[in-house]
Structure formats: structure tokens, C-alpha cells
Amino acid sequence: MADNARAKKLADLIREVVAEKLQRGIKDPRLGSHVTITDTRVTGDLREATVFYTVYGDDEERENAARGLDSAKGVLRSAVGAAAGVKFTPTLTFVADALPENAKTIEDLLDKARASDQAVRDASSGAAYAGEADPYRKPGEDDEDEAGDASA
């Protein structure tokens, strides 16, 4: 089993090689400049690599990019093997990165919270206290009320 530093180095190399090959070496129109490699992870035994990618575009372009990456998997693995110089070139698995969708969901939720906070601020801007401004009893006031009630 390889150490984590070696797996990290190999993952970084795979990310760079795959990104470079997608940019310059693959002529598949489905893999245009809108595919971005975001992360790569390699198992501890250096046998399998998971490559995370994002696609700028709609759902159809994402599906086309997934098919294009699947068809180019052999060429990309060969390029990784030539660059890495390891005994066994890891198999490549491409996974669409959910980071952009998660970030958009979080942004939408934050926008909703900001709008809700603004609505509360607007509603409370002209509001007045339900009772007195200071609803708490003071120590001297309690004694006077009790003494007045006892004499009556």
C-alpha cells in the first residue's frame, strides 16, 4: 500500500495531465472548453482514480460531456501512464462534480434569508412597544404599590 503523499502526488499529476489533454489533445467536439477538471482522488493502492469535473452549460451539454469523457477514457489513461511512469496506470472514473449545484442552492437559501430579514426590518421600522418602553419593575416602585394596597 502506498503512502498518502504518493497518492496525493499522483492525483495532482492525473488532474494536470487530464486537463491538459482535454484542452489540447482530444478533438471530440463534446469536450470543448466548457469542461473543467475540479479534483482528482486516488485510492491508497494507486489502482483507481476518480476525476471530478464540471461542465459549463445546460443538461444536454453535461450529458454530451459525460459521453465524451467516457469515450476518451482510454486515451486519457494512456496519457496519464506516459506522464506518471508508474508500474500500473490507475483506471479513470469520471464523476460530475456537484459543487456548482450545491453552491447555487446555498446562494438561493441565503438570498431567501436576506429577503426575510429585510421584511422583518421593514415591518418593525414603524412599530411601537406593546406596553411601556421599560416593562420591568424597579425596586422602589414595588414597595409603594404594596403599601398603598395594605391601607385600603
Low-confidence sequence ranges: none
Radius of gyration, in angstroms, nearest whole number: 31 Å
Oligomeric form:
single chain
Number of strands: 3
- In this structure, how is the largest beta sheet organized? 3 strands, mixed
Q: Please, how many helices? A: 5
Shape: elongated
Structural class: alpha+beta
Helix content: 55-70%
Main sheet: strand order: 1-2-3
Characterization of the model:
This protein is an alpha+beta fold and 152 residues long. It is 57% helix and 14% strand. The chain contains five helices and three strands, in the order αββααβαα. The protein has helices at residues 4-25, 59-71, 73-84, 99-124, 139-151, and strands spanning 35-42, 48-55, 91-96. The protein has a three-stranded mixed β-sheet. β1 and β2 (48-55) form a beta hairpin. α1 (4-25) crosses α3. The longest helix is centred in the last third of the chain and has 26 residues, at 99-124.
Write the layout of secondary structure elements.
Elements (H helix, E strand, L loop, with lengths): L3 H22 L9 E8 L5 E8 L3 H13 L1 H12 L6 E6 L2 H26 L14 H13 L1
List keywords for this structure.
3-stranded mixed beta sheet, 14% strand, 152 residues, 5 helices, 57% helix, alpha+beta, 3 strands, single chain
What is this entry, summarized?
This protein is of the alpha+beta class. The protein has five helices and three strands.
